[in-house]
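Running co-folding for zinc ion.
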Amino acid sequence: MAPTDTGIREAQLSRDEMLRYSRHLVLPEVALDGQRRIKAARVLLVGAGGLGSPAALYLAAAGVGTLGIVDFDVVDVTNLHRQVLHGTSAVGMPKLDSARERITDLNPHVHVETYEERLTSENALDILRDYDMVVDGTDNFATRYLVNDACVLLGKPNVYGSIFRFDGQASVFCMPDGPCYRCLFPEPPPPGSIPSCAEGGVLGVLPGLVGTIQATEALKLIVGAGDPLVGRLLLVDALGMRFHTVRVDRDPACPACGTHEITELIDYDAYCGAPAATDADRAIAEITPRELAERLRNGGGSFDLIDVREPYEWNIARLPGARLIPLGSVPAVMASLDPSREVILYCRSGVRSADAARQLQGAGFHVSNLAGGILRWSDDVDPTTPKY
Ligand SMILES: [Zn+2]
């Protein structure tokens, strides 16, 4: 008997499919019954990015009958170092179109259902309801809490993965006897405290490792084989090449799966304090790259231009007349800055410099943040400035 009954029934296989999946059919843990369950399964992938790419490819190759994909993004050239579902020829194309094309080529027996929209509190329950489980490949906390709460409300397994730089995590939440994401992380981190992969970077192969683990767990749940990552959080350290699991218990006080206080989906952007929506952000003055270029042309002596990125980024590209103070050093260096002078801050995209601007503004400095950072500077002022 399967350790967890997902309620998935079986579908008949054609001769072509028998041949295609023959290496599964000879595995006693999968065999014909398991492969029929895989064909009958409906798996929803939230995100067709770094984690969703390997998960989609392996689940499609394995013969999952219906793959739903939620994504509203367009393939960008900076995606390609890790999002192996998409090719260079797909740059500029919606990720869903690119995903459908690749999956259909890989396995025409897979039915792909696409949702070209952001997963929200309004649509999540309707979209998730028709699936047996969710593979969470999101890259932000608001959507992660949304996916989790929707899975708890609907009683669907949530196959979780996340990545940052060289570290990854995976687990299976929302199973009948296991914890949910909220049991592990009762509160979202303070907004802006954890940089995104765009800001902090990620080793290209890392989502390959973690997304493949998610696909493995999804397949195990479908066929009912093995020991799923329920009540365990797998920690992947790619630099040290160490895999650890830590026990995660269900929290009886968890408002989602414990006390069931959460009876409907909430406003997750507000809950996680989406940075763009806070008063602190609005209060920071912005300067556009063109305005900054104009002021630099006019001498630039009236303000300090501070780059809050890391030294290795400084070596890739920098703005004329800037001084490097990495974000982590801002509190220590603050005392050496002249509070009577205006400070203009920048980073790669404007997120870290907004954080530094808040710190300096809080200390009484007159600050402005360069909107869009080096990236927009390259677009609007100097195309020879490398983007990365
Ligand atoms: Zn919980």
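Result summary
The pocket of zinc ion is lined by residues 179-180, 182-183, 251, 254, 256-258 (CB under 6 Å).
The chain has 17 helices and 13 strands.
Job closed.
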